[in-house]
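Note to self: the last two entries modelled the partners one at a time, which told us nothing about the interface. This time every component goes in together.
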Amino acid sequence: MVVTSGGGSILGSLLALGCDLEEIVELYQRLWTHEIAEHPNRLAMLQMVLPKIFKAREYFNLRDDRLMNERLRSALGDHSFADVKIPLFIAATDFRNGTQIVISDGSLYDAVRASIALPLIFPPHERGGQMLVDGYLSDPLPIGIAIKEGADIILTMGFESASNAQRNSLSEYILHLSGVISNNLLNASYAFYNLAHHSEVLLIMPHFESDIQTFDTNKLSEIIKAGEIEAERIMPQLKHMVGTHL
Amino acid sequence: MDKMKPRIALVIGCGGLKCAAAIGVLQVLEAEALFPDMVVGCSGGAIFGAAIAMGFSSDRMIEALAQIWTRDTMQKLDFPSLAKIALPKQIGFDDQIGILDDRGLTNGIAKAFGAKTTFADTVIPFHCLATDFHSGEQVILSEGNLTRAVRASAGIPILFKPVECDGRLLIDGGLSDPLPVDVAIREGADAIIAVGFETPLSHSFSSPMNFASQMFNILVNQLFYRKFAFFNLAYHSEIVIITPQFESDIPLNDVNSIPFVIEQGRKETLKHLAHLRQVIASKQD
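The predicted structure of the combined assembly is written out below.
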């Protein structure tokens, strides 16, 4: 099974659909580029400067999401969860009550779009009357889903948000603070699962030479290499775990 | 040989004015002759933690609180920060941002505890938790000026400016650990009474700030649940977690609801009293 949250949902869905790795890299490189976050949402500017006149009714987002939606549509087409070759679970967060929502049926586009809706940057995604945002908000490391679905061995990757850059505006300041809390949440999740499920969970923590920002798609080969190195390092342990579960 | 007396820690998590429930918790403990040997506080909990550690009576704590959360504290704006937010490119943006004028908060805390009071002046050892603005790590403050430490720990970011302390910028401890039980464990507590709070969420969002605060509240709640789950699992025989319940949120300046908040703390503690006695008894053997 594949369990994903946030940006990982794009890769996870392609993997579950049965695309080969080269295909996934190629699609991802075309989809996830700086351009999708380049267009400001002009209404947001007015809402910030004149909040009394331009009321934010349902939500507030700094970036226009049309290009991202278009690209996601073309990558995922009309595929639904019924088309996946490997069972797939995509985590999002209900923004009204903060709980984790696990999506495992219906349109793949809907699920992925909800899962990558970074609050404040992109608008939330409405699905079945729920207002969904990025899964990291409720759980940056959704191991709990794999456990509930009966996994024996769980290979997991979680990433801290890097924030060495200087903050030049209130929105960057807010994003830095949300990164601070979500990194602490990630660490608290590691600690919990390490203690509660240490014999089922294997952590892959790639080490990156340079800081990787959200849209550094040009560094993809460096990122993939770091994942490979780390996977090779944990391979003996993984084989041992598989052995004990046979 | 006498039986070993277990060291009892009272840990008060973040929760703004809801932290006044700690007064109710303390009332129940004192009636049972269970006196904390150390106090750990975070954010709003640091204010009450410091007051308990200083040995204040309930009345004096409420009075101290009224000095801290005045109308001015919550309403006076900080125009230099607003200018930086409105015109970041022209004026220059930096990390010293706080939309409220923090002199009310800083002076209120100084008035309540004494501007020169240090951790050495407390009756019960006290530890206060803040967060490093840059690295996001938890910072435990256990010595030096008390007012400064409490002000740092209670510094809700964006509302109040971070506090500079030994070359670090410190903000609200809730961002790294909303229920700092681990501090009590490191300090050698045998039995821990942890008072923690959930932040109620909104259902509609009418401004960008509402939307941003919902995001922070979801994250801090999740961090609280995760820490809670971890401590429950790792230290279940040392810890009693008390989570006073409130149907709606208690605004920071709603000083009139303090008696109700204290009562909720008392009620919730009474529910856990048998468990608490059992934990303490098990540590005496």
